[in-house]
Write a structure and sequence with these properties.
There is one protein chain. The protein is of the alpha/beta class. It has one domain: Histone deacetylase domain (Arginase, Chain A). It is 36% helix and 14% strand. The chain has nine helices and twelve strands. Helix 3 runs parallel beside helix 4, helix 6 packs parallel to helix 7 and helix 7 packs parallel to helix 8. The longest helix has 20 residues. The protein binds zinc ion (ZN). The site of zinc ion has 7 residues, from loops. It comes from Korarchaeum cryptofilum (strain OPF8). This is Histone deacetylase superfamily.
Length: 340
């Protein structure tokens, strides 16, 4: 399988230890090789910076272009090469979307810096930081698919953290269904079931906060149920996956911790849904994941979605728990949008 990796990603390199570092991509590729995925590394090159204006304000793009070495905020750094690396990451996302539009069932962008916390003009939804992100690669990929007539598009964001940038950018966009499953107690603190989208897009933003005790089975139960429900309602023609692997057990980034079996099942569930509902393809865009999640979770997910063998986990959620209440609340909200 091809893995889109821009060689210039190394120009975005932290001044001192930081989890979002160039070695992440080496860990991901090593993990893929260990699982027999044999990635063919492709650098698709740079697109024109105009692609960034699909989702970002020009003033923000110029702000990033003009920045040198330093910290943009408490947890996001920039270097002299950040603009080029971030534009290359966005270019990879557009290439992945184009490949899906041309008929590839699975296209994978392993680019960095990540993007799902970046809003139109930087930090999104009142958040104080960009959370290591620069340009919103997944939102750009989704809009690229819509521009090419592949719509509606669904984004599934299963990074540990809520994609507040993606939600902000697409809040009023009814052509993009944004489903976000994330740690209820982690940064940035946004993404609750009553966040449903604005105006004509109401009902197209779906948030599933997950409590620490929920585990593999509960996580998969909610994803299976809600994705099945949404497939029937929206019939998305393609998916963009905001694929973060920082919810993997041992990553140490948050409270929920998933196993390889959960990631394999997530991939395999998407493959099943894609085949059952006539989805053209999946553009997988790397978000977070900093160590073991990249090495183990990423290849498990890719094996599941590409139909390679693996061990999954069955969905199960105990009634009466606080997680079950969140699930019921979300189902009730979503059911009230009958014609969307
Ligand atoms: Zn994350």
């Amino acid at each position: 399988m091809d893995a889109l990796v821009p060689s210039v990603h190394k120009m975005h390199c932290p001044p001192s230890y930081h989890p979002e570092r160039p070695e992440r991509i080496e860990i991901a590729i090593k993990g893929m090789k260990e699982e027999g995925l044999e990635p063919n590394i492709v650098d698709p090159g740079m697109r024109d910076a105009e692609i960034l204006t699909i989702v970002h304000e020009r003033a923000y793009i110029e702000y990033i272009r003009g920045r040198g070495k330093g910290y943009i905020d408490a947890d996001t750094y920039s270097t002299e090469g950040t603009f080029e690396a971030a534009l290359a990451a966005a270019s990879c996302a557009v290439e992945a979307a184009d490949r899906v539009a041309r008929g590839e069932f699975l296209s994978i962008s392993l680019a960095r810096p990540p993007g799902h916390h970046a809003g139109r003009s930087g930090a999104a939804m009142g958040c104080r930081t960009l959370g290591f992100c620069i340009f919103n690669n997944a939102a750009i990929a989704a809009i690229e698919l819509v521009r090419r007539g592949v719509m509606p598009v669904a984004i599934l964001d299963f990074d540990l953290h809520h994609g507040n940038g993606t939600q902000e950018i697409l809040w009023y966009n009814p052509e993009v269904l944004h489903i976000d499953i994330h740690d209820a107690f982690e940064y940035p603190g946004t993404g609750w079931p009553n966040d449903l989208g604005g105006g004509a897009a109401r009902g197209t933003k779906v948030n599933i906060p997950v409590y620490p005790e929920t585990g593999d089975k509960g996580y998969i139960f909610m994803l299976e149920d809600i994705l099945n429900f949404l497939m029937e309602k929206f019939r998305p023609k393609a998916f963009v996956i905001s694929a973060g692997f920082d919810a993997y057990a041992g990553e140490g980034m948050g409270y929920i911790s998933l196993s390889s079996r959960a990631y394999w099942r997530m991939g395999n569930l998407l493959k099943e849904l894609g085949e059952n509902w006539g989805v053209k393809g999946f553009a997988v865009i790397l978000e977070g994941g900093y160590s073991i999640g990249l090495r183990k979770g990423l290849p498990s997910f890719l094996k599941g979605i590409s139909g390679m063998g693996g061990e999954g986990v069955g969905g199960e959620l105990e009634e009466g728990t606080r997680q079950y209440k969140i699930f019921l609340q979300l189902k009730e909200f979503l059911s009230s949008f009958n014609d969307k």
